[in-house]
Amino acid sequence: MNDEVLIWESYQKILEMAQKYTSRNTSINSGKLPATFSSHLFDTPAGSINIDLGGGRFDNATEALKERGITNLIIDPYNRTSEFNHTNEQIAKKNKVTSVTVNNVLNVIMEPEERESVIKKAKSYLNHGGKAFFLIHYKTGKKAGETKKDSWQNHIHPKEYVPEIQKYFSDIQVKGNLIIAR
């Protein structure tokens, strides 16, 4: 195991200590793609690279984007191995990343500082002019809280995440439950 993989493993351990609820139990394979990928707003062109930050342990999105000529690199410290994440991080660093998707991730992180870390990481992958897509799951009228063992939902409207995202992105649009940031 090389030093960079050891650094990634240390990063994973720090994340797990910082978050009361990890996203390990929120990765589900419903057979449906996150709505971001079927939205006309997801305009990442063929030949591009998309980072799927917090993309879970299933490859449905990667396969669907491959059919559209888009390389999808999942980075998920809770649902992928250190080696897998490290490899995708290295590919991202060496190439121009056109888009970053953060699907149903911010809404499962209770701590604002941990959400900020994810937003900052999303920004760090993008090339100039790239877009980040933050898909937010929420239910009106529900209160934030534990949904099952080791799972959390904020249940806040996507517009309420804008101040956190504005720290790293200057151009933000909210379209339903999708936030598009440049």
What is the secondary structure topology, with strand pairs?
Elements: H1 3-18, H2 35-38, E1 49-53, H3 60-67, E2 71-75, H4 82-94, E3 97-103, H5 112-125, E4 126-135, E5 145-148, E6 151-153, H6 162-165, E7 172-175, E8 178-181
Kindly summarize this structure in a few lines:
The chain is α/β, with parallel strands linked by helices and 182 residues long.
CATH class: Alpha Beta
Q: Which fold does the CATH topology refer to?
A: Rossmann fold
In CATH, the homologous superfamily goes by the name Vaccinia Virus protein VP39
The overall pLDDT average reads 87
Binned strand content: 15-25%
**Portion in helices:** 25-40%
Query: What's the end-to-end separation, in Å?
Result: 36 Å
Give the count of helical stretches: 6
In the residues, how many domains can be counted?
A: 1
Strand order of the largest sheet: 2-1-3-4-8-7
- Major sheet characteristics: 6 strands, mixed
Elements, N to C (H/E): HHEHEHEHEEEHEE
Q: Which structural class best describes the helix and strand composition?
A: alpha/beta
Radius of gyration over all CA atoms, rounded: 15 Å
Unreliably modeled segments = none
- Form type: globular
* Strand element count: 8
CATH-defined architecture: 3-Layer(aba) Sandwich
Keywords:
182 residues; globular; alpha/beta; Rossmann fold; single chain; 23% strand; 6 helices; two-stranded antiparallel ribbon
